[in-house]
Design brief:
Number of helices: 12
CATH topology of the largest domain: pyruvate-formate lyase- activating enzyme
CATH class of the largest domain: Alpha Beta
Radius of gyration: 23 Å
CATH architecture of the largest domain: Alpha-Beta Horseshoe
CATH superfamily of the largest domain: tm_1862 like domain
Distance between the termini: 32 Å
Shape: globular
Largest sheet: 6 strands, parallel
Length: 461
């Protein structure tokens, strides 16, 4: 089989990273091999995300650059196919075909398992008419994972595993229910099988993914349903799987069993991303979040009782329509009371098709910018304090790759901090092992440490 070159550019969330890896797996039997640059590719896929502002415009800009490459390749007697997948494709599929004729295929996040057939259709249309107009934006997810190949390329020492897709929450600012569809959870047996395969290929740490990952409710194989806490306990029994993470969580779906798993399962890392979005109950109601600030505090208290060393990150939106100075102050109060190791914060921006986009009480841009600056100053102060408190501590670090300097390795602490480690004097390849590291300094975007004794080591499988 003739080899073909595939370039996938991934935008946005970790679920898109997982999806891109599965696209490559699906296309491998057709002879596609990955290439780092679009210039070398026979097929370019843009795997898009609709969460960030102006996401569609960024895609169109990239498509414009690819059009020039496509035309250049055609002049040389070759052919390049351009496909756009993911959430922007799901939301704007037909419009994309109209606006950017150089796109050959548009497919949503629930259709990538059909890529071989879709590419076949696109190729036939190109040969017969000179233009392809293949659009696949079905939201049905029930059979998606059943149709993915059992064999897959190794994903590295730390890897993502999607266990849940879609969202039934319908937060008023969010497009996910419209681009990913209703909540769907993979059966426990399927998740365990994929996790075991990943561990056999060398994965040491798995991050479980879902739009609302803690809404997981998978078939347990015995006529019942397993929640995320139970799934994690089952995963923790896999020999060689040393670390388990999960993201992204919704406060509404944090139950007592999941909190107990944080207490009882040492392989769950003590770092949790738990978006709150606002500290104002009035704004939370307007957002349709269906939790209160008090409930968020209650959950955080239970988590810290169960796992005293747990650290939190979160998401915040400032300037939601109708947000007053008092509402923003409630957010600042929550931030100071809870304390976060890190956080993501954004100015509200309307997403077409969401309820909030049509509200009249839009906050002026300069007010949003001023509030965001105040919030980010506090969040940065907390992050810097958290990192500074790491100096002098000994932490287990999963060493994943070579650093920029000879003898240096880079890995992650249990708290998702990047750590550069001087390992030049230690014999052997330490990548894929978990080693005790004494943190010596805080750098601008990472920590620096040195191997510590006694040494804890877990060899990659």
């Amino acid at each position: 089989m003739a080899k073909k070159r595939l370039h996938i550019k991934t935008y946005g969330c970790q679920m898109n990273v997982y999806d891109s890896a599965r696209m490559a797996d699906v296309l491998a039997p057709l002879g596609y091999e990955a290439t780092e640059t679009p210039e070398d590719a026979d097929l370019v896929i843009l795997n898009t995300c609709h969460i960030r502002e102006k996401a569609a415009e960024k895609v169109y800009s990239e498509v414009g650059r690819l059009r020039l490459l496509k035309e250049e390749k055609a002049r040389a007697g070759g052919r390049m196919l351009v496909a756009v997948g993911g959430c922007v494709a799901q939301a704007q599929g037909a419009e994309m075909m109209r606006r950017a004729p150089s796109i050959d295929l548009v497919f949503g996040p629930q259709a990538y398992q059909d890529l071989p057939d879709l590419l076949g259709r696109a190729t036939r249309e190109l040969m017969e008419t000179g233009r392809s107009r293949v659009v696949a934006i079905d939201l049905a997810v029930d059979e998606k994972f059943d149709r993915l190949p059992e064999e897959a390329a190794p994903q590295g020492y730390s890897a993502f595993l999607t266990i849940q897709e879609g969202c039934d929450k319908f937060c008023s600012f969010c497009v996910v229910p419209y681009t990913r569809g209703a909540e769907f959870s993979r059966p426990v047996a399927d998740v365990l099988a994929e996790a075991r395969r990943m561990v056999r290929q060398g994965t040491v740490e798995i991050s479980l993914l879902g739009q609302n990952v803690n809404a997981y409710h998978g078939d347990d194989g015995n006529g019942g349903v397993a929640g995320l806490g139970e799934l994690i306990r089952r995963l923790a029994d896999i020999d060689g799987l040393e670390r388990i993470r999960y993201t992204t969580s919704h406060p509404r779906d944090v139950d007592d069993d999941l909190i107990a798993a944080h207490r009882d399962v040492p392989r769950i890392m003590p770092f949790l991303h738990l978006p709150v979005q606002s500290g104002s109950d009035r704004i939370l109601r307007a957002m349709n979040r269906r939790h209160t600030a008090a409930r968020y505090h209650e959950i955080v208290g239970k988590l810290r009782d169960a796992r005293p060393d747990i650290a939190l990150s979160s998401d915040f939106i400032v300037g939601y329509p109708g947000e007053t100075d008092a509402d923003f102050q409630a957010t600042m109060d929550l931030v100071r009371q809870v304390g976060f190791a890190m956080a993501y914060s954004f100015k509200y921006s309307p997403r077409p098709g969401t309820p909030a986009a049509d509200l009249d009480e839009q906050v002026p841009e300069d007010v949003k910018s001023a509030r965001l600056a105040v919030l980010q100053d506090e969040l940065l102060r907390q992050q810097e304090a958290f990192n500074a408190a790491s100096v002098g501590r000994i932490m287990p670090v999963l060493l994943e790759r070579d650093g920029r300097h000879p003898g240096q390795l880079v890995g992650r602490s249990p708290y998702m901090q990047a750590v550069s480690v001087d390992a030049g004097s230690v014999p052997g390849d330490l990548k894929g092992t978990i080693r005790n590291v004494e943190i010596a300094a805080v750098l601008s975007n990472s920590l620096r440490g040195r191997l510590a004794e006694p040494v804890s080591m877990v060899a990659a499988q």
